[in-house]
Amino acid sequence: MLKKLQLLAALLFFAYPVFSQTIVSTDPENRKAILEEFTGINCQFCPQGHAIANAIKDNNPDDFFVINIHQGGFSTPGAGQPDFRTPFGNAIVNQSYSGGGFGYPSGTVNRQNFPGREMTAPGTTAMSRSFWTVSSNETIAQASYVNVGVEAEIDINTRELTVHVEAYYTGNSPQATNKLNVALLQNNTLGPQSGGNMGNNYVHMHRLVHLLTGQWGVDINTTTSGSFVDETFTYTIPANYNGVPVDFFEAELELVVFITETQQNIVSGNGVFSTYTGLANANDIRINEISEIMDQCNNVIAPTIKVQNIGSNNTTALTIEYSVNGGAAQTYEWEGQLNSVSSQTIELPEIEFDLQANNTLVVTLPNDDDNSNNEMTLEFDEAVESHYELDLTIQTDNWGSEVRWNIKNGEGQTITQGGPYGNNQTINVPTITLTDDCYTFNLIDTFGDGGGPVTLQDTNGLVIFSTNGNYGSGESENFSTTGNPLGVNDNNTLVALIYPNPTTGILNIQTESNLDITIFDITGKLIFNASNVTNGGHIDLSALNSGLYLVKMNDGNNESTQKLIIK
Question: Which domain range does residue 365 map to?
């Protein structure tokens, strides 16, 4: 049940000591941008819209807010699928466009018309995703005549949400009556998505579940300069919406509030994540996730973990211990801001370990009020070892121009690459010859919707990577190669140095004895040789293309092969 309480006096205001007394600025501010994004669970291109919205948020963290509204045919659940729709979506979408041709994902920025950007008829507000960024940036740059502040709290035992909103008018509204809207959003809901290459494990964010103020908000009747609005709303959050559970520790519930002039034209707004009371422990950090680690051919990894504060106290420091295969534990002292019930993704520093066929990473947090959630493990394997000669076959779809690929060595340098290609073609890339090393094959689709089948295998038929085409924006695979007669010898007795490396063309030689020098490209083709090169000698390779080369040096008794990069 929704109860609206208007605070008319300072004395009554003090009845809510949990909240600040003034949360809104009285100085003129620019508008906040509110993107209402129309989406669904069976929407091939909606993940691209979500990525665009996330990028806008990253660039404008305090000035941009997104509300994902599941509506229309793409949101209609099939057998066994969750229903993310709300009673409010149809009306919001229907007022944003006119006529046919309405596609998904689409959205409105502040329910405002941007001439020339309409998805349908002139004067409407729905736009395709290509216009969200420019429209949001324009909105944020405009002055606002009203500022909005919000804070929210949930009692985890009673499930009661209390939302406190303040608004201050720094100018006059052209409308005698404005409307205040409070939207409740749920984050981190795993569910299906036909796009994004995540199957049923797509993470749905900023999902509208309820409008505390009804379809079009509650009236604000004082809209002149100097007017101050102070409203508090309470709402009991159900255990689920349409059968989709609301787990407070997983959901990270979010509030977005905004003021409209009518049902259209959002003047400005604000957003906040709810805080919580009634938690079982004061100090309790748990590990929620360790990010997947690809098969490895190096003995160094940099794990990424996600931790969550499920205690009532905020945390600014955290000790993290981790080890691989029972080896020596490494300790990382994290510092930051981890508020109650909020989560944080942490990339740990690299740790060395003895690589085995099957490997186990163990991450542990220090003792706190609940030690049952302080440790997590992750298994990962050794990468496949292949022959040094590889065959790559790419079948493109109707959008071959979106396909790219590259192979990078253990230092992250691109050894070879290809794409874009034509449509509906089979590309048999000429045999790729590599030195003995650790590599990463990266397959990329610039549009994010995958393409046709792709297979990378060695000339002995060992499959390194294979996909049926459902690779979204891209996939990667680690592998190592062996058997190249030009393999780099790191355990040689020849004392010689080539520098600088990388070089732009001029290579200096430091040696204790005269050398015969031969240089090969990565296919094994001889491209340079010189005899009796003395200490302090120079070799001019400026005519060669940028890339990786192998320099073989021989003094008559010992031999060494070293990698050389020409920039």
Answer: 285-381
User: Percent helix, strand and coil across the chain, each rounded to 5?
Assistant: 10, 45, 45
All residues at 6 or more sequence positions from 332 whose CB lies less than 8 Å from its CB, including other chains = 319, 320, 321, 322, 346, 348, 349
Non-local (6+) Cβ contacts of 302 within 8 A are 347, 348, 349, 350, 351
Is 18 part of a structural domain of the chain? Answer: no
| Among candidate residues 416, 436, 458, 439, the one with its CA nearest the CA of residue 295 | 439
Domain boundary among 447, 482, 517: 482
**Mind listing the pLDDT tens digit for each residue in 161-180?**
999 999 999 999 999 999 99
Residue 116 is classified by DSSP as: T
pLDDT, tens digit (0-9, with 9 covering 90-100), for 317-336: 999 999 999 999 999 999 99
Show which of 228, 244, 277 is a domain's final residue: 277
Phi, psi of 73 (to 5 degrees): -60, -35
pLDDT level of residue 487 (50, 70, 90 thresholds): low
- Tokens encoding 479: 């592998």
Residues 302 and 413 in one domain: no
CA 148 to centroid of chain Cα atoms: 29
Q: Which of 342, 320, 316 is nearest to 333 (CA)?
A: 320
* 3-class secondary structure per residue, 446-499: CCCCCCCCEEEEECCCCEEEEECCCCCCEEEEEEEEECCCCCCCCCCCCCEEEE
